[in-house]
Amino acid sequence: MEKKREIRPEKINYFNEIKTIFQENNFVLFCNFSKLTVKQFEELRGKIRDKNGYIKVIKTNIARLSAKESIDFEIPEDMFKLNTFIVYANDEISSIVKEIKSIQKTKVVTIKGAIFENSFLNAQEAERLADLPSKAELYGMLANILASPYTRFTRALGDIISRFPRVLNQIAQSK
Q1: Using an 8 Å Cβ cutoff, are 141 and 133 in contact?
Q2: What is the CATH number of the domain that holds 115?
C-alpha cells in the first residue's frame, strides 16, 4: 500500500494566499530577480509600497498551481521559472511599472510578463504600461480640462475690461 504524502498546512495557506492575490488584484507583474541584492530588494519594496503596491517572492510551483485554479486564461510556464517575484496592485500601475523599468536598466531585474484586467501581457506589452499617465498626472489633466472654460472666460472678460477705456477714449476723440 502506497503512502499518500500529506500537504503541510503552510503550503496550503501559501497556495490560498497566492490564489487570493491573483483573484483580487487588477494587476500582477512577474519579474526575474536573479541578480538583485537583499538591500536593493528592500529598497524596491519600499518604493513599490509608497505607490500602493506590494511585492512577493513566489514559490514557483505552488504559484503556478494556484494560478491555474484561480485564473480563466493561460499563463505561460516561463512566468513560473527561475527566481521570480510578483508585484501586485489595483491602482498606480504605471508608476509601479516605471519603477521596475528603472531598476531593469541595471540588469538586476527583468520583467517577464503581467496579468492586467483579466488578460495576460507579454514582457513588451507589460513595459508599455509605464507609458500610461499616473493617477496624479490624470488628475492634473482633468483639472486642466475642467478649468479651461473658466480660464478662457476670465481672459475674455479681462480683454473686454481692458478694451473699454480705449473705446471710450476713441469715442471722446471722435467728438
Answers
A1: yes
A2: 3.30.70.1730
